[in-house]
Amino acid sequence: MTTTVTSSVNPEPDPPGTSDGSSRSPSRRAGYRELLRTPGAWTFLVPGFLARQPFAMLTLGIVLLVEDTTGSFGAAGTVSATAGVAMALCAPRAGRLADRFGQRAVLLPGIALHAVSVALLTSLALSGAPLWALLVTAVPAGASVPQVGPMVRARWAHLLRDRPGTLPTAAALESVTDELTFVLGPVLATALCTGVHPAAGLAAEGVLTVVGGLLFAARRRTQPPVQRRARVTADSGGAGGAAGTGTDGGPHASALSVPGVRVLIVAFLGVGAVFGGMQVSLAAYTEHIGQPDLNGVLYGIFAAGNMLAGLGYGALTWRSSPRRRLLVSYGLLVLATAPLWAVDSVVPLAVLGLLAGAGIGPSLITGFTLVERLTPPTVRTEAFTWLTGAVALGQAGAATAAGQLVDGFGTNAGFAVPPLVTALALVIVAVLRGRLVPAAPDTPVVKGPVPSRPSRPGPVRDGREDSGQDSGRGTRRG
Questions:
Q1: In which band, very low, low, confident or very high, does the pLDDT at 447 lie, cut at 50, 70 and 90?
Q2: What is the rounded radius of gyration, in angstroms, for the C-alpha atoms of the chain?
Q3: Is a pLDDT exceeding 70 seen at residue 333?
Q4: Could you read off the pLDDT of 68-90 as tens digits, one per residue?
Q5: What 3-state DSSP class applies to 288?
Q6: How far is CA 416 from CA 163, 193, 335, 399, 421, in A?
C-alpha cells in the first residue's frame, strides 16, 4: 500500500564557526568600514537616522507634557502607553503593506497623519482637555509612527542579499543606530520640555518626522522591490518554520506564523519593558530629588551603555550560536535591572543603568539577526516591525505599570517593573529556544514509501548548538 509522506531531510552538519542550524555558507564577516562602502548605503542611512528620532521621543515627550498639565505620572503613563500600544498593533500592518506596495507608498500618508495627530494631542493637553480626549488622540499619534527602522533593515537585507556574511554586521550597525537614537532622542526631548516649553519635545518630534520621513521616502533606488505574494506550504517544516515559501502567487501567511518570530516577540516585549520602566521611573526619581534636568542625563547613560555594548558586540565574530548569545545577554539584562528598585542615590543608579543598557544592545542585535534567518524576503519588513512593535508594546505596558506604582507606592516602586518582566520573558524564551533554529532549506515532499537512508559515520548534528566547538568566545574582526 502506497501512502503520501512528507519527509524533512536532516540538514548537513553546521560549518565550522556556526551552530545555529542556519543553512548559510560560512562567509567572512565584514567590518563596519566595508559595510558602509556598500553602494547607496549613505543615501538612506542619514535620512533614516533623522526619521527614527520620533520613535524615541514620542512616548517620553507625552509623559513630560501630560505630567506637567495634569500633575499625575499615572495619567501621563496611561496616555503614553496608549500611543505605544497603537504603535505596536499597527506597526506590523504597516510593514506588511510596505512589503506589498513599497515603502514610499506607506510612508507618505503615514507621515501626514502622524504630524496632524501629534499637533492635535499637544493642543488638547495644553488646553486642559479631559483624559479621555488625550487617550483618543494618542491612538492615531502612535499608530502612524513611521516604521523607518524596520524599513532600513529591509533595505540592508536587499542590498546585501549576495553577501550574507555582511548581514550580522548590518544588524549590529542598525542596533547601534537605534541605541544612539535612544541616547539623543530622550535627552533632546527632556531638554526641550524642561528648558524651553513642556510641549517643545513633541513639537520637535513632529518636525523630525516630516523632514526625516520625506527625505527617506525620496530614496527610492535602495528600497527593496515589491514582493509578490506567496502561499505557505504545509510541508515547510523545521524548528523555525518559514512563511511565504510557495511561489504560486497566492496569499501567504503573516510573519507571525513563524514560531521563532513569536518567541522573539516575547523577548522584545521584555526589552520594551526596560525602556518604559526606566523612562517613567527615572523621570519620577529626578523630580523627587528636585533635579528634573538629570532625567535626560541618567536616561542617556542608560542608552549609552546600550549603544557601546552594541558597538563592541558588532565588532566581534562570534563562534557561539545566536540563540545561545540571546539567552546569555538576556540573563545579564535581568541581573542588571534586579537591584534598581533598592537604589536611592544618583551615582549607583547611573552605574546600574549603564549595566542594564549593556544587556539590551546584544539582545536586540541577536534578535534581529535571528529573525532575518527565520523569515523569507516576502515577509521580512513585517517581521522586523513585529519586533519593533513588541518593543513599543512592552514599553507602553511598563510605562503604565510604573506610573501607577510610582503614584501608589513611591518613587522607586516603578523600578520593579523591568526585572519582573524580563525575568518572565527569559523563562519563556529559554523553554521555547528550540523554535529559534531556522528550517532546513528546500525541504522536499516525498510521495510514496520513504527510502531508508544510510547511516552517516561520526556524530550527526541535528541543528542544536551544544557541541564542543561552541566556545562562545568572540574574535575581533579585521
A1: very low
A2: 23
A3: yes
A4: 888 887 788 889 888 888 887 88
A5: helix
A6: 43, 26, 12, 12, 9
The amino acid present at 78, given as its one-letter code, is T
- Within 10 angstroms of residue 338's Cβ, the number of other Cβ atoms is 18
212's enclosing H/E stretch is helix 200-218
More confident residue, 155 or 241: 155
Q: Which of 148, 140, 21 is nearest to 89 (CA)?
A: 140
DSSP string over 46-94: HHHHHHHHHHHHHHHHHHHHHHHHHS-HHHHHHHHHHHHHHHHHHHHHH
- What is the tally of helices (H) and strands (E) in the chain? 14, 4
Strands 316-318 and 474-476: antiparallel
Per the listing, cell 488638547 goes with 124
Q: Does position 199 have pLDDT exceeding 80, yes or no?
A: yes
- The predicted model scores a pTM of 0.67
**Residue 95: HSE in the Cβ half-sphere, 13 Å Cα cutoff:** 31
pLDDT the model gives residue 113: 93
The residues, any chain, with a CB within 8 Å of residue 428's CB and separated by 6 or more, are 263, 266
